[in-house]
Amino acid sequence: MHIVSTVKDMRQVIREVKVENNTLGFVPTMGYLHEGHLSLIKRAKLENDIVIVSIFVNPTQFGANEDYDIYPKDFKRDKQLAETAGADYVFYPTVEEMYPTGYKTSVDVSEITDRLCGASRPGHFKGVTTIVNKLFNIVEPNRAYFGLKDAQQVAVIQQMVKDLFMNVEVIPCSIVRESDGLAMSSRNVYLTQQDRSAALILSKSLMKAKKIINEGERDLKIIRNTIIESISKEAPVSVEYIEIIQFPSLEKIDILEGKVLIALAAKVGRVRLIDNVILEVQK
Amino acid sequence: MHIVSTVKDMRQVIREVKVENNTLGFVPTMGYLHEGHLSLIKRAKLENDIVIVSIFVNPTQFGANEDYDIYPKDFKRDKQLAETAGADYVFYPTVEEMYPTGYKTSVDVSEITDRLCGASRPGHFKGVTTIVNKLFNIVEPNRAYFGLKDAQQVAVIQQMVKDLFMNVEVIPCSIVRESDGLAMSSRNVYLTQQDRSAALILSKSLMKAKKIINEGERDLKIIRNTIIESISKEAPVSVEYIEIIQFPSLEKIDILEGKVLIALAAKVGRVRLIDNVILEVQK
Hints:
By secondary structure, chain A is α/β, with parallel strands linked by helices. Chain A is built from ten helices and ten strands. Chains A, B: InterPro entries: Cyt_trans-like (IPR004821), Pantoate_ligase (IPR003721), Pantoate_ligase_C (IPR042176), Rossmann-like_a/b/a_fold (IPR014729).
């Protein structure tokens, strides 16, 4: 496995890879890899000749009071994990490489970025679409793999790719969970032991909602309240949002039907976590 | 020469062209081709194996009170001119093809889009960068050719390409002028005979400015006033802006030195025209 740190070198690799007509799978990450990321790399390796993983903590998608400065990093460990999972190249640029002095261009998706995480993290998705656009242009992948833990991110990137006619297939991949149900996240490392335990209520409440829908419940208020009541039992957990919406359009729904996303964000102690479940609902 | 009207068909053409390792030159236009456009097509043909010309009057770069609805069109004539100049394909999509229902994504370059034409045409360059980004993603050209009559547009697109790491070389091409000096423009067709004559003062005043600079004048106020006084003699001409700035940074200058752009916009009768001159100035 090779480490590439400049755009110029990455382009050279891509040129060589493409000459031989290899297909190229791409897994953009912010590093501190966990089983969720590794599942993306493994799938990319199954479906493509060459796999490129990027590790870049993107400053423009963090708000002023967020955790950019303390975002967990362990490049040595990431390198080993990526290689074992099947990565051929790791793209590991500096901030200056991705945002050279005097940069002025941004890519923005409107409307569907205003809600859910976008409501409490203004500018977050603009940062995400801008960096993903840059990375796609550098790597020119055939397929790019994203975890569905951030379902809104998947929807936003799919919208950008469609609208700008980018020549890449975005492949959403299932959430990977710890054995007790907690969705894998690089931020889980921030949790105290007590909060780690309380955080379980997030996945549990979503599974409960899924269960009552599968049993026939169609009243949005009842479903929402079931989640809220379930979470309210855990003192360290404060809900930021719970949304039941269409996926991937992220449109509000009145009647539960079709592909439905139940997404939530909550603070567990001082750590902001997200989780969701997507289900196919018959009317 | 082939006419292609859908993104899907265009992609298919590109795939075929690329398999044979042909280089691809691209000339994006809004149609109603004149000698300026044809010079771009001819140059593209000289420097590439295959030339694609797009003809698309982009609605998102027109303001509410501008001339989108009456923008001149003559596809039959354009087709013949493009073919004679050396185009292999004309990409001629509908508005619905380029902006399908529900599109939400835009590409924006900040700061350098606020001045010159950007000041009086808010949103104009956002429309330009968004459509050019789409077109670049569809056509995947090696080189793209733009006329320097809209020098700001060239600077903005170069900035976008650099910032987003787009894999295309932007090639600025000299302004083509009528024998009497008027810069070629599709909008010249709007001019009455009287206004056509008055419009000559734009290029004349720029040439005058160039002359006095070449003769040693370095005082920005004097140069600017020379242009203003020259233009003020023509009653139907009202100046929108005259700017003397660095190119391609479009930064304000205190001292005339290096690559300098003198750009102006004016209404001639009811027609808005732009013109400029770029010169290399020794201190």
